[in-house]
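Task card 7
Instruction: Convert sequence to structure tokens.
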Amino acid sequence: MSEATFGSKLTMNLGPRSYDITLRRGALQNLYQLADLNRRVAVVTDSGVPPVYARQVADQCREAVIITVPQGEGSKCLRTLESVLQQMLAFGMGRGDLVVAVGGGVVGDLAGFAAAVYMRGIDFINCPTTTLSMIDSSIGGKTAVDLGDTKNVVGAFWQPRVVVVDADTLSTLPRRHYINGLAEAIKAGLLADPELFELFETGDVDADIDQIIYRSLQFKKGIVEADETEHGARRALNFGHTIGHGIEAVKGIKGRRKVGLYHGECVALGMLPMIESNSLRRRTRAVYRRLGLPVRAGFDKEKVYAEMLHDKKAQGGRITVIKVPGLGCWRADTIPVESLRSLLGLEG
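Output:
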């Protein structure tokens, strides 16, 4: 397995929308070396992120306001988006100013979308602080909020100017959240990186976390460069998400629902029915058990199916799903939406 340390840099090659992805421990405290902070900066974070991280960024800026939203998926909504935009406007932000996200995927999606729509688009920097956001959502330019229980249905493609991955921030992450994010790395291994998948089978995820993040970002970078706006190869990244989003709508931790499953746990469950090889499905379940991810969960399958019908990929009574016939390969199947019932184990 190739070496990768947290002094690495990847470049997302998207022509005029290209940007650097810096992987360096301690980078958050030195953001000024990587980006222009000599302007008004809105630092968006949430109440679950240690305040010191947002303050580290704000202290490097000429003028900064810290906008803190409530922790959890419930903040990815139009009401919270409006609050963020109102605070940006009150701060006097203009077209030359900047939004910096400091937090997990919810913060990145929300702050990125706010940057995309404020004055028809201003600069955005993503500083992920969770395994889930470092491995997956911090790059690629997808920004969105939810509409009710339907995830990411209001959004825009808006690429960041810089992404800064400082793995030192993981030291304050609760263990379940840490493991939750690794589901997206398992996804990358199943789709295209057998060595990464085998690392989960035999390696030490804590000792190898730098390598896991680096390889996961390499995989996603290649996919996004080939298909920035999801018209072809980028559909692979939806592996596990069609069923996973349905499970999350019914069983996810959101708003007043304090008990349930996190996003990565739902995606992990959503991947299993899409793995066609019985032996690979057994190996994947073994990895889940090794990490502490769920291999099954009790939920109302009819309700999950109903939520899946809201998937934005469903059109004209058909939906495209990603299946994995074997380790390191995938294909996109367009099927009638009714076929989702059998994938869920429902009759008829």
